[in-house]
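Hello, quick one for you while I still have it in my head. My current little project is about how a certain protein chain folds up. You're getting the sequence in one-letter code plus the fold written as tokens. Would you mind checking whether the tokens look sensible for this chain? Here's the protein in full, and shout if anything looks odd to you:
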Amino acid sequence: MSTPGKARAARPTDLPAIAAILDAVWLELDQPICHTVEELNEEFSSEATSLDDVLVWESADGELIGVGYTVLLPGESLARCYLFGGVLPEWRSRGVGGSLIDQLIDRAERRLHGCSSDRRVIRTHRPSSSISAARLLRSRDFSVVRYFTDMHREVNDSPAALLPDGYRIGTWDPSRSEEIRLLKNLAFNDHWGSTPSSTDAWRSTVDSSATRLDLSRTVTAPNGELVGLLLTRRHPADDETLGANYAWMDLIATHPDHRGRGIAAAMIIDALTAYRRDGIERAALEVDADSPTGAHRLYAKLGFEPWHKVETDELDLTVLAGATSPPTG
């Protein structure tokens, strides 16, 4: 059976159709998300992804039925290129998904070829419920290398946010954004799959339309040093689909020298109080199943419950090329 239609480069006018395709893909996976043109435009105008990195699949009748794009995260020791996208459910099993993945892999290889990193990998970060995508990836030598869990809880009464003497919780201060960026890079240095944020990438994160700095938190030590951060994101377009107003705790980090003092717990509790005052009904976050800080235990203790399972697949180009350096990150 021939594959219907063909792939072509995405255009700015394709963004509404791309959003509709992604909405349909995630809805079928029982993880409804409402993608907005504004958010996609931001994502496709970032340091990691441009509109030139986006492919759409057009049927013979001119309907957009699939989309795929690459996200490049370079690093000195590790360069990662993620593949994202999907095909409308009614167009499955016609070869579109396989053709898209092959073209995305080719694009990812070319983008990674320009990186001087010690190790270069292609990855996906997909819901565990995406069985058809998993089969396509297995047939192309990808393997699952990491498991994550989305967790959520109701925003209701919480205990007081307790910190050691001299530590203070505050609202995110934009004037200290560079200090917060450096703290984030340091705190996540021992986390699997983390890439240090460049100045431009950090600016895109902080200035994103979804970011709520008024609901984000930082902690300072007695000497005034920033030692904790929690970044909040809101996607109001998702609320009706999800049946509740959600806030995402996108980044939660503590300076390595100040761990074990209740800083993360205090920030979460304080943020939950702010969410409740803002009319937000539920809070969510993603956690690495093998987090080096045991974060999943902390989140469970604070009332977060498992929601969705996510898997990271990987194709290691360094190993394929014959290098023998051990996998890291």
